[in-house]
Amino acid sequence: MAKRKDDRRPLRPATAMVHGGTTRSGFGETSEALFLTQGFVYESAEAAEARFKGEAPGFIYSRYANPTVRMFEERMMALEGAEDARATASGMAAVAAALQCQVQAGDHVVASRALFGSCRYVIETVLARAGVTSTIVDGRDLDQWRAAVRPETKVFFFESPANPTLEIVDIAAVAEIAHAAGAKLVVDNVFATPMFQKPLELGADIVVYSATKHIDGQGRCLGGIVLSSKEWIDENLHDYYRHTGPALSPFNAWALLKGLETLPLRVAQQTRSAARVADLLAESGKVPKVLYPGRDDHPDAAIVKKQMTGGSTLVAFEVAGGKEAAFRFSNALEIVLISNNLGDAKSLITHPATTTHKNLTPEARAELGIGDGLLRLSLGLEDIDDLVEDIEAALAAV
Ligand SMILES: *Cc1c(COP(=O)(O)O)cnc(C)c1O
User: Fold this and answer.
1) Single pTM value for the model
2) DSSP state of 235
3) Which atom of ligand 1 is nearest to the CA of 93?
4) Angle at 153 between CA 176 and CA 160, to 5 degrees
């Protein structure tokens, strides 16, 4: 990026995803270099001492920071408009680090009930063991967020759109409630992707991603990232990250950097396909409920318009006939694969009630709108006409 004259003009997303954060070695390589190294050597004992004292710049150990991982962090910072970031080995490492690094025994966390199962485990089990209490609310109901606040409330946490029903939380409104309570807001932005929603601009303090999903987007690597202000990272995450070791592998960081180059293209294409499939399902007469943030009949369409710049690469829908019909639909698909992942180049279908959300009680599932006929479809990069034919054939089989 050294050739750019005016660094104050922010790069537009597609440009930032190709060039953002790039640093070149002395060889001047075009593609990002993969620094597959654990450590670094010093020219002298004095140089090592100065680096450890923080008086000289440079890398020390890849558990702290690594040049390839830093390129990934800086590219994500450019996209998100964040001052600093730490990349992690998985999305869950990012969620756990973002929460654990800022709470201690006696603190209280408020979270929305429509959460990725592992996030709920971190809050209700891992944090609870450390003496941190929590209140789970219906994220769409602002009065529940307000009522949950206690003097010791430190953190608010939610995802929007939420897995698997694509339920929406009003980020700006919940951020205001959090800040009035003196708490920080952490948003899991996986389903929106960095292309369609900027939680930091809407008032969130910290954003987390599973980079495993759209950022890799080709089903290869696990990864995650925590983004925030420099001040918050310095005071909360910096030491925690160095000493507990959730660091991202440089190899995976390299794959994720290459994933970011095509993220805008992939998300745009997958969203076009998702919108087309949502309309097809809604108009088929065979699907009683279609949930798609880009459609006007989404229950939270007004908030979608306010805080998102695109719909989603996923569609959730309920087939009539419960589990049996949902299984028949899934098994009839020939191109769309049955898998619990999402954001992949391959279209994937999931039956949440028997897989990702099987650990919830039937009552908890009902509360979240996860019926036995609910399916979650993640659109891939296949030709839309092939996907339409595949889905129409499966509908005929139900
Ligand atoms: C997948 C996912 C995670 C966890 O990410 P991993 O990379 O699988 O650890 C967290 N939050 C949401 C919303 C997810 O979809």
Assistant:
1) 0.96
2) I
3) 9
4) 50
DSSP secondary structure code for residue 336 in this structure: S
Q: Which of 88, 92, 355 to mutate to test the pocket of ligand 1 (most atoms within 8 A of CB)?
A: 92
Structure confidence at residue 27 as a pLDDT band (50, 70, 90): very high
In residues, how long is the chain? Answer: 398
Give the bridge partners for 210, in sequence order. 224
Taking alpha carbons only, the member of 143, 16, 20, 147 closest to residue 74 is 20
pLDDT > 90 in the chain, percent:
95
* Residue 263: strand, helix, or coil: helix
Say if ligand 1 is within 6 A of residue 188 CB: yes
The pLDDT value recorded for residue 117 is 86
Residue 123 burial by Cβ neighbours in a 10 Å radius (0-12, 13-18, 19+): buried
Range of the domain at 309: 264-397
Same domain, 154 and 279: no
- Looking at the domain assignment, is residue 8 inside a domain? no
CA separation (Å) from 158 to 5, 198, 310?
Answer: 40, 14, 19
Is residue 27 a part of any domain in this protein? yes
Return the ∠ at Cα 87 (arms to 340 and 171), rounded to 5°. 70
Any atom of ligand 1 within 6 Å of the Cβ of 178: no
Cα(88) to centroid(ligand 1), Å:
12
116 lines ligand 1 (CB under 6 A): yes
How many domains does the chain fold into? 2
For residue 160, CA distances in Å to 27, 95, 140, 186, 355 come to 43, 14, 10, 11, 21
